[in-house]
Amino acid sequence: LKRLETNLFPQFDGSPKAGPGGFTSTSMREVYQARVKDGKSWEDSASQDSNTTEAVEIAMMLAAVFANDIETLAQATLENMKALQTNRIALAQSSAFNLLLAALVRGDAFDEKISASLAEQAGKLGLPKIDDYITASRTVSNIKNGDLVIEPAWKVSYVYGMACASNMLFPAAIYLAARFQDDFEQGVLHAINGGG
Predict the structure, then answer these.
(1) What is d(CA 114, CA 21) in angstroms, rounded to the nearest whole number?
(2) What pTM was estimated for this model as a whole?
(3) Which of 58, 95, 105, 145 is the most exposed, fewest CB within 10 Å of its CB?
């Protein structure tokens, strides 16, 4: 959070068309307003209704660092995400996605059994148990048996949506990761070319 204050927030002015990349999302503008302009604490600065992915974009780094320590990962993920947003569904989806990311970083098999493993981990960690855990296994299964074919793969963003909402981004990212398990570069290229 200190890095947000020292590295990112100085690039903002509170307007949508400012900041890195020429755009700042609503949730980050709300946190910026509360934290920088209004001087509120981190606990009182989180965006209330946001379902966008800014919080998990930061939390993904934690998945790489704490991939082998899921207790620390779960705690650090929720603490960091709650500083940016309080939407319970977005937090639950982001936690599920981060557990999946940690599993992939560890080298766990990305197969039809991964969802059961993720749900079990979530239960042990006290994380919300939501349907999002089944997405990974069903996606892998549907790709393997030919039931889910999107050509070209970058059009996955047309299928799930191009907004930055977690319920659109995560299924698209899971599809590309499952489809290009053996070709990281292609997965990234299709994600970039999909836009959104």
Answers:
(1) 35
(2) 0.86
(3) 145
